[in-house]
Specification:
The complex is a heterodimer of chains A (410) and B (308).
Chain A: H1 4-16, H2 19-61, E1 63-69, H3 76-82, E2 86-90, H4 94-102, E3 108-114, E4 117-122, H5 133-150, H6 155-162, H7 177-211, H8 214-219, H9 224-256, H10 258-261, H11 266-269, H12 273-298, H13 307-328, H14 335-340, H15 344-357, H16 362-390, H17 400-409
Helix pairs in contact in A: 1-9, 2-9, 7-9, 7-12, 7-13, 7-15, 9-12, 9-16, 12-13, 12-15, 12-16, 13-15, 15-16, 16-17
Chain B: E1 2-12, E2 15-26, E3 30-35, H1 41-48, E4 56-61, E5 64-65, E6 73-76, H2 88-98, H3 103-116, H4 132-144, E7 150-154, H5 162-177, E8 181-185, H6 189-195, E9 198-203, E10 206-212, H7 213-221, E11 224-229, H8 234-244, E12 249-254, E13 259-263, H9 269-278, E14 283-288, H10 293-307
Parallel strand pairs in B: 3-8, 3-9, 6-7, 7-8
Antiparallel strand pairs in B: 1-2, 1-4, 4-5, 9-10, 11-13, 11-14, 12-13
Helix pairs in contact in B: 2-3
Classes of the chains: A alpha/beta (410), B alpha/beta (308).
Chain lengths: 410, 308
């Protein structure tokens, strides 16, 4: 094991000595910064435009909505108040509304068929667009006015009573799952991607060494355990550097531009420090566990082309864990999630999700972390033995089950 | 120092590959490890280097169990392998440090061996930018970078032009003079004859011939003579001797220049020469047969194949 440091240093050269790796890392980080600064730049342009020609431009930019009052209940003055930012086109019949929308001269069309019902037309419906709330409020107001008139009520008093403001102060003593769900979702995806991507890089590196026969020189120059630990630690450092730099660029530039982004993406970026620490601890453990497995699997093949045959085992395991954890995010304190958060093959993803969203005791986190890191060490030594037994065996890919059987024979 | 292998046996997937290999080699001597492809030479080397564990038998150093340390042995495998996309100097220093040198020693040894092998100008180049011959020399520098006491060279001359081959010959000679143990595996028998005092011929996982090369040659040449004639081709001469002198000798073989024969009991070389004169054989050369290693190898491995 004394050579781990030498192997680590040399293997790091494969990453940091690669111009394409360095340039792509910097470019992705810069792209993140540019994206995060984009709303600020856009706001700057908007302010200039508003100062120069706000009135004329806003007139031109207004959307057109078409309305047809088939029931004869609409109040056009009230409609103008509700749609002050829209050009209103009043039609004489339903087909006219339909044609205006169909020709895209109007963005939306409403045909009121009774005081409490209407049809509406839209050309292309966007996934999250809300076309109806404002119109429904408008019709409801008309109904309320009509009620006041029939019952001889003062509309002002009625509306004041109808819109009493109730003030509520939310005090969350535990965790806000609605807020934490989205960044948890993103972090589960990130850790999955990192394990698969870098695991494959490590396995490819080993298979390449076997392919170009440098492995024979290496295993006779130091222990296979030192080789595997050095390779995996180098992969971990390179990953931390690359993912860390990109995350830092993204989160740092988000913090600088938070006010320009509004509430829309805060759910992804306002991650509590405790959750970030749990993510780092468990994410790193999971990465190391699978990296050792990928390294050993890389030694089972003689050619990089055969890598899919052996690395499929790890790939399948990581994917199953990924799907199970994602599905269980909405049932974070369920029994399956509890089991997954203690199994070393899945705790890297499940436990930090529980820390972020569920009810979890400190001892549970500690026990899970100990189990995970003990497994990392165990997998390191097991991977080293598989690596040693497999590196000088050429020909057809060796099955993992056969490699494990061979270990028993020793 | 004396490296000794005793009754080494090794099986893979239930099939025994080595059936009890034994040989030894001492400091300041080179051992020729010979055998056909797949005979078990590389497996034997890997057992010495602790890459494979023997099922039974021992590897001893000066009579005690040999505990392999990476710095002890410099190994040039037949399948060359370094990192094609990494800088040469960096790779050699890395290998030196893995084998126990500190960085200063590793850098110094890297420079020394690159210079000795006449490739120091490539120190800062990537390996895959070099010609095959120069890559081969870099590989040899990687083998020797830790100044090992035991050097195992598997087909070291493969891919080298005559000039580079001479450099390598000189280096091997120096290693032997410095008292290193050199194990030399090659199918190019002339090189083995040039360096090795002792040989081991492995065939089908068995050491079929071991010992001092000169003694082996003498024993193979004992009682045998060679003859050539100006007025007969070698096949004609062999036929003539077989038909006319069958009571005095029997023809064993022909090599490139002579007919090889063994004298029957009761006759000496002078009587045979006299008989040849009577038969009008114009003798061009007549002498004691000294077999080449190639002859011995073909003869020994051939015998084994015939027996099987």
């Amino acid at each position: 094991m004394k050579n781990v440091k030498n192997v680590l240093r040399f293997e790091l050269g494969n990453y940091f000595g690669s111009k394409s790796w360095i340039i792509s890392t910097i470019l992705i980080a810069l792209l993140c910064v540019v994206i995060m600064f984009f709303p600020r730049v856009l706001a700057g342009f908007r302010n200039d435009d508003e100062e120069n020609s706000s009135e004329t431009v806003s007139e031109e930019d207004m959307s057109t909505y078409a309305f047809y009052d088939a029931a004869g209940v609409m109040d056009m003055e009230l409609l103008s108040e509700y749609y002050s930012d829209v050009k209103i086109t009043v039609c004489e019949q339903e087909d006219e509304v339909r044609n205006l929308v169909d020709s895209q001269e109007a963005e939306l069309g409403f045909v009121v068929t009774s005081p409490t019902s209407y049809d509406y037309y839209v050309y292309n419906k966007e996934m999250f667009a809300d076309y109806q709330t404002r119109f429904q409020e408008y019709l409801a107001t008309l109904v309320k006015y009509s009620y006041c008139e029939k019952n001889n009520l003062n509309p002002e008093e009625f509306f004041a009573l109808d819109s009493v403001n109730i003030t509520a102060n939310e005090n969350i003593l535990g965790k806000d799952s609605s807020q934490n769900y989205w960044y948890c979702y993103i972090l589960v995806i990130i850790v999955f991607m990192v394990i698969v991507m870098y695991g494959t890089i490590i396995a490819t590196g080993v298979a390449n060494e076997k392919g170009n026969r440098s492995i024979e020189i290496m295993v006779t120059s130091t222990s296979s355990t030192s080789l595997l630990f050095g390779k995996v630690f180098a992969g971990a450092i390179a990953t931390l550097f690359q993912v860390g730099l990109i995350a830092l660029s993204l989160l740092g530039s988000y913090q600088l531009n938070k006010e320009y982004w509004g509430e829309g993406i805060s759910m992804f970026f306002d991650i509590p420090t405790g959750v970030l620490i749990a993510f780092a601890v468990f994410g790193l453990g999971g990465f190391l566990l699978y990296a050792f497995l990928y390294g050993a699997l890389g030694a089972l093949v003689s050619k990089v082309e055969d890598l899919n045959k052996s690395a499929g085992t790890a790939q399948m395991l990581v994917t199953i864990v990924y799907i199970l954890v994602l599905v269980q995010l909405t049932n974070i304190d369920g029994i399956l999630m509890k089991i997954l958060s203690f199994l070393p093959i899945s705790s890297y993803s499940a436990m930090f999700a529980r820390v972020a969203m569920g009810s979890v005791e400190t001892w549970e986190v500690v026990v899970s972390a100990i189990l995970l890191y003990a497994s990392v060490i165990g997998m390191g030594f097991l991977g080293g033995k598989i690596f040693r037994n497999s590196t000088l065996r050429y020909g057809n890919p060796i099955k993992l089950s056969n490699a494990l059987k061979d270990l028993k024979k020793k | 120092m004396r490296l000794e292998l005793k009754e080494i046996k090794k099986s893979f997937d239930g099939k025994e590959i080595l059936h009890g290999i034994s040989f030894s080699v001492e400091s300041g001597k080179a051992l020729g490890l010979l055998g056909r492809n797949g005979a078990g030479k590389t497996t034997t080397i890997r057992i010495i280097m602790d890459v494979f564990h023997a099922d039974s038998g021992e590897v001893l150093m000066d009579g005690s169990k040999f505990h392999y340390q990476p710095g002890d042995i410099g190994y040039l495998p037949e399948e060359r392998g370094l990192y094609p996309k990494r800088v040469i100097g960096e790779q050699l220093v890395y290998l030196g440090m893995l084998r126990g040198l500190n960085k200063k020693q590793a850098v110094s040894n890297m420079k020394k061996w690159l210079e000795r092998l006449d490739v120091s100008e490539y120190e800062n180049r990537k390996l895959d930018t070099l010609s095959k011959g120069n890559q081969q020399k870099v590989q040899l520098a990687a083998t020797l970078v830790s100044d090992p006491e035991i050097v195992i060279l598997d087909e070291p001359f493969s891919g080298l032009d005559p000039v580079n081959a001479q450099i390598l010959k000189d280096v091997i000679t120096e290693l032997i003079q410095e008292g290193k143990i050199v194990i030399f595996s090659s199918h190019q028998m002339s090189y083995v004859e040039e360096f090795c005092e002792e040989i081991v011929i492995i065939n089908h996982g068995e050491a079929v011939l071991t010992g001092d090369l000169e003694k082996i040659k003498m024993s193979y040449g004992e009682g045998r003579k060679v003859v050539s004639a100006n007025n007969y081709t070698l096949p004609e001469l062999a036929d003539k001797l077989s038909s006319e002198l069958s009571d005095m000798l029997h023809v064993v073989n022909t090599n490139k220049h002579s007919v090889i024969f063994e004298m029957e009991k009761g006759y000496d070389q002078w009587q045979i020469l006299e008989k040849m004169k009577q038969l009008d054989i114009d003798v061009k050369s007549f002498g004691i047969y000294e077999p080449s290693l190639n002859d011995i190898f073909v003869s020994k491995v051939g015998e084994e194949e015939a027996d099987k």
